[in-house]
């Protein structure tokens, strides 16, 4: 959308700048998916969605529980007598049972090594709202946060857009499996200081999006001591905590703090049920701070994005069912492990490696050998080939601010088994074709590559084309999609 | 310790106001008919609790509205996964239709302009983020809802410039007062970006006629500033004349539609504050698009979208609900104001909202806000009613109080009225006839239309509507 000068004067700077991050070319893949989404019967040649970090693998368990627990709903005969109380309940402390259930769930997800205090559970509009709230509480406009890369693309909007706070990436390298090193943190910190950028804290995502790895205890301790030394904050986004499906286990920052000398006022956790339970639509974001002032402030701010009391009520009931939760967590891990294994094995067979991961809903695929040259441009070209030729919407590493070209995040949990097979077949075919090509004369492969390039979606960086709302409107979404998976519109991907 | 933000350490959240003392008194000693008959009665909460029986009946007849019933669980998964910030199409269509119905179907709302937010609280903040930069300001007629101080200013850095309205003309907004406030702001180098009106008004319970709205639209058009119309109480209009929305007036007046924005919610009209259904409806495409992106910070739970979509697309239910709600609000309002008038207490003539704007100026020791606070403390501590002092609404005249009447059952209302009566008698303020005579008085010496007197007879026969207490810190009051 072109912003006329008139609009710029009439509206705020926030409304007319790009900091919402949706003008990234990252969204082209979504567009391709939306206009041609895969369906096993209706559209078998369509684009398969592998850019969406969703966890739909355990809905059978959830639906069974729902049927067996009609009193969890305020709309059933069993729950109706609660309807009025719940419908009028707008206390920003949140339903006590909800907070207790969430605190208990968080504890279980961390292996019961830590007890979370229900009085520190503060609601927000999804993790999207939680991250923004945390920043509003901790930093002033112009301040900055260190964020190890590669990191979740949505941080660009969530941490920066309305807050005016900046992100300073801490680039991590494949040479050591993208570990966050003390040295890298120190270097990024010093560099920022020299440029007069006021670093207020560090944000980590653990388990990592997009890597799918967990931080080990040593790295966690190093982070905690780093922030304590520098007197800056540590925000740990633990939204994928229960997606850990094999060892090593997840270690929450809350656990690490327990046997360390550190300043607890600096430590804050962001959580959500969007990934662990598969409920992104319910907008259950949580800010959990060990700092009383931040807790109080965030709680007041939660008025801007409270969890619907109807949903609080449902989840209070569901998450306090110990047996169900135990069973769910075990089964979810099992199914994620299985799915992850099928994919990574399939990729190995054709010589594609991925970062060794044991968590998350995706893997971090190494396509560097397929790049024509080690540049972001080549990565983008390869990506367009993957979308248009292989017909898979994966996410290029550059959209995660990865400093090394050639890495792609590929989601594996958001589809059924049949679709997994199709996706793997397509990848196999593509890689084998690529190998064939390498055996041909150079000019023949060049010619084909050129043809492919011409067929590629012309990437337009102009915001007006990408953000043409009429294209993105629900009317344009393919009737084949079971759910209108509008691209940019994901609250979180 | 590392500092936290200025926003976090400042007072922009507005909760340090004396206004909240009443809440504290209530929370430590809430009224309960049997357990705590001497407790404080909550009359500071603008909630609409009168029609839940109606809603509950509908829910029993429509199990498919829930994704947790046997009939609805097949939709559970796709709903739980749905996080598209456009919102569920059926939800937007149902809300657009409802908004139209509430405005007498005189105007149609476009579902594609319906943007979600975290309650009206989130909607206001979002609109401020879209329209103004830190340091810029909105004009807001007084008295106004105290939450605006937080919602529009706290995290946005935007300022509010009051447009003083006074009782001499029933607190109506005049173009003169708007012009005066605007120019004064200009002289002080404050950039005015827009005007925010709440229509129907909180705390007044009145709404603007078409001519006033036309003048206001001409004013913003002339100054090239935005008009934000908070119409959260639109369906609480319980008596004629009919409510006129900004959306209706812009069809009749030449104006730049890019300046017009409506904030709406289901918290008051339906009585669902817990469900956090806020709506931003802008006629400006850029604002709509920007607000939609921002809605990610406060989307409506898809579970709730599903419920609301089903409920609000049921035409018969909605028509009946709106009519029934109006009827019950009318009865409650009439009984309350009539009884008060018998005790010698006047209030601003109103026909909307969930509260009355009570005139206690003659009870003030002197015409000051200190005296108002003193009187207020007496009302809380001695009369044991949590009402809201006019100063908390930035009213420029001391002695006015907002008193909510729709958030309690009939019994609590009677207790509240008798406490007021006793207080007035004690203070020799009026010759108040004893209670039983009041009850027997069927021929009322009031100049009422016939339909009104029919309604009067009805409310004396009306069944009790039981409601639980709500001892809470409210997202919105």
UniProtKB/TrEMBL annotation, chain A:
User: Has the keyword Metal-binding been applied to this entry?
Assistant: no
Q: Which SUPFAM superfamilies match?
A: PLP-dependent transferases
Q: Which UniProt keywords apply?
A: Pyridoxal phosphate
In terms of InterPro entries, this protein maps to: Aminotransferase_I/II_large, Ethylene_sulfur-biosynth, NHTrfase_class1_PyrdxlP-BS, PyrdxlP-dep_Trfase, PyrdxlP-dep_Trfase_major, PyrdxlP-dep_Trfase_small
Residue ranges of every copy of the Aminotransferase class I/classII large domain listed in the record: 48-427
Keyword S-adenosyl-L-methionine assigned: no
Pfam families, A to Z:
Aminotran_1_2
Single GO MF annotation: 1-aminocyclopropane-1-carboxylate synthase activity
Q: Which family does it belong to?
A: Belongs to the class-I pyridoxal-phosphate-dependent aminotransferase family.
Name used for this protein in its record: Aminotransferase class I/classII large domain-containing protein
Q: Which organism is it from?
A: Gossypium trilobum
Q: What is the lineage of its organism?
A: Eukaryota, Viridiplantae, Streptophyta, Embryophyta, Tracheophyta
From TrEMBL, chain B:
**What InterPro entries does its record include?**
Aminotransferase_I/II_large, Ethylene_sulfur-biosynth, NHTrfase_class1_PyrdxlP-BS, PyrdxlP-dep_Trfase, PyrdxlP-dep_Trfase_major, PyrdxlP-dep_Trfase_small
Q: Does the keyword Transferase apply?
A: no
Q: Which SUPFAM superfamilies match?
A: PLP-dependent transferases
Instruction: List GO molecular-function terms, semicolon-separated.
Output: 1-aminocyclopropane-1-carboxylate synthase activity; pyridoxal phosphate binding; transaminase activity
Note the CDD domains from the entry: AAT_like (cd00609)
Q: Does the keyword Ribonucleoprotein feature in the UniProt annotation? A: no
Q: Report the pathway entry.
A: Alkene biosynthesis; ethylene biosynthesis via S-adenosyl-L-methionine; ethylene from S-adenosyl-L-methionine: step 1/2
| Homology family | Belongs to the class-I pyridoxal-phosphate-dependent aminotransferase family.
Q: What is this protein called?
A: 1-aminocyclopropane-1-carboxylate synthase
Which species?
Answer: Gossypium davidsonii (Davidson's cotton)
Q: What is the lineage of its organism?
A: Eukaryota, Viridiplantae, Streptophyta, Embryophyta, Tracheophyta
